[in-house]
Specification:
16 helices, Nucleotidyltransferase, domain 5, 6 strands, alpha/beta
């Protein structure tokens, strides 16, 4: 019998070790690894011991069974996935082919065997939630501060006789905040399509239940007729309001009949012989039917906690009022930007008013850094009277559009053009480069982890850019010194030649 078990690369138990040097890494090629490669730089910047410790707190070691995967491989693979905007399967393939990625994951030598099966990514996302990744982001912020302090210490100190200005301010830094929607990877939901999907799923559930029931005759579902009537309208290029109303009435009738038939079959059975996910589908469809019937009777298109996908019932419509798309379907997040580091302060499937989250973001700023921000830069939706009063009480300057007829002083305190660009740039970077514009995770908790992982990647990229910039500055300083030496030598030789000629 053929062995169908999937091979994976050796996954030794994580032991705290220093990052291998480039010469220690066994390469199958003749040349050594490039020290300026992004994966090499990132591997040296990350505090792997601390990150793995955070991971182990939520994944306790097992005394029996197969040895768990090295947490560095798990965390590193998630970083690679979002940094390169790859799907789960492609990420595993890239790792098995790329020597630099393997070095980043802590491999001691090149290995062409996949590190794990791609399906395990789902389990990784379940383990790493918003709380855990925010802890990692806080550590990244501290790493940046430590790097900045090292660079500051290298600068020549001022004369000890010169008195230094006291720094007793309890407010430091700036906080920039904004919110955006994270669209889910679902088909655009129309009422007619939703009812058709629900009807087909109920037909599937009826088949399953009837097979284990004692009923002699299967309840009629009219599935072929219902499908034809749906396609008759769905495939029309120009649908009138009357066409849609008629089709909705028909599909509601078929769906309602199927739900009642399922109830009749269940009455003949002891218990509910459905799997967990099948029973979940049944509950979702029953709720969807009630929502759609209510909207049809009231001739409206809105209802509280509206279901837009029977496969992902947690997804909600988010009204943003943007020119490109007025309504998006997914989660809504609120982020804060502190000295280039991004923090995910709020994640919700409901369309919350971001103005109510400002005070929470400011308090989290103090919790992370130990002091309040000196100023807050925010959009006008955050600047209600309650928030203004709160910031005034805390002694925090609000740089935003003033209310009413502003004074000259108030106008001068507005956010200047470009001051909020960093947070808008983070959204653009996350959506265009790292996949925040299309969340492909299906579950509620894995979707949250997906978004949090993208925020983590944003911070890692920023950290690497800062570190690389300092390396470039160091090189430029050396070049400049050499240039000055050459210039000075050249000047000296010219002066010497002139003296000889005069003599």
């Amino acid at each position: 019998m053929q062995n169908t078990s999937k091979n994976r690369a050796p996954a030794p138990k994580y032991v705290s070790t220093k990052q291998l040097s480039l010469t220690e890494f066994e390469s199958p090629f003749e040349r050594n690894l490039n020290p300026s490669n992004r994966w090499v730089i990132l591997s040296k910047l990350l505090p792997w011991d601390e990150l793995c410790s955070i991971y182990w707190k939520h994944v306790p070691e097992k005394s029996t069974g197969r040895t768990p995967l090295n947490p560095r491989i798990v965390l590193g693979a998630i970083i690679i996935k979002h940094l390169c905007d790859l799907d789960d399967r492609e990420t595993v393939e890239q790792i098995s082919e790329n020597i630099y990625m393997q070095y980043f994951l802590g491999y001691s030598s090149f290995c062409d065997v996949p590190p794990f099966d791609a399906s395990l990514f789902v389990e990784f996302r379940k383990r790493l939630g918003l709380e855990q990744i925010n802890k990692i982001n806080e550590r990244i912020s501290k790493i940046k501060q430590e790097l900045e302090q090292k660079e500051q210490n290298k600068k020549p100190k001022k004369d000890e006789d010169t008195p230094s200005k006291p720094q007793e301010s309890t407010h430091k830094g700036s906080l920039i905040t904004d919110a955006t929607a994270c669209p889910q990877d679902i088909a655009y939901p129309t009422d007619l399509d939703l009812l058709d999907d629900a009807r087909e799923k109920t037909e599937e559930l009826m088949d399953i239940l009837f097979a284990v029931s004692t009923m002699q005759k299967k309840p009629r579902s009219y599935r072929e007729k219902a499908r034809k009537e749906y396609l008759k309208v769905a495939q029309k290029k120009a649908k009138t309001r009357k066409d849609i109303r008629t089709a909705l009435k028909q599909q509601l009738g078929y769906l309602g009949r199927n739900i009642r038939s399922i109830d009749k079959i269940l009455d003949t059975l002891e218990g509910i012989p459905l799997k967990k996910n099948q029973y979940k589908y049944l509950l979702v469809i029953q709720h969807l039917y009630q929502q759609q019937k209510s909207m049809y009777d009231a001739k409206t298109h809105s209802v509280e906690d509206r279901i837009v996908s029977i496969h992902q019932p947690h997804v909600r419509p988010i009204v943003r009022g943007k020119a490109k798309s007025k309504v998006e379907f997914g989660a809504k997040i609120n982020i804060t930007l502190v000295d280039g580091i991004t923090f995910l302060d709020d994640f919700s499937w409901d369309a919350f008013n971001e103005g109510t989250r400002l005070q929470n973001s400011v308090e989290k700023y103090k919790e992370r850094l130990g002091y309040y921000p000196k100023e807050v830069l925010a959009d006008k939706i955050y600047c209600n009277r309650e928030n203004r009063a709160y910031l005034k009480e805390k002694g925090i300057n609000l740089k935003a559009k003033p209310l009413g007829r502003p004074s000259k002083q108030a106008l001068s305190n507005q956010v200047s053009p470009g001051e909020r660009n960093p947070v808008e740039g983070k959204f653009g970077q996350a959506k265009t480069a790292y996949g925040l514009d299309r969340i492909k995770a299906r579950l509620s908790n894995t979707s949250e982890s997906w978004v949090a992982s993208i925020i983590l990647v944003l911070n890692l990229v920023h950290l690497a850019e800062v570190a690389l910039l300092w390396e470039i500055v160091k090189v430029l300083k050396l070049i400049f010194k050499e240039f000055l030496i050459v210039v000075n030598d050249f000047g000296y030789e010219n002066k010497r030649d002139k003296k000889i000629r005069v003599a």
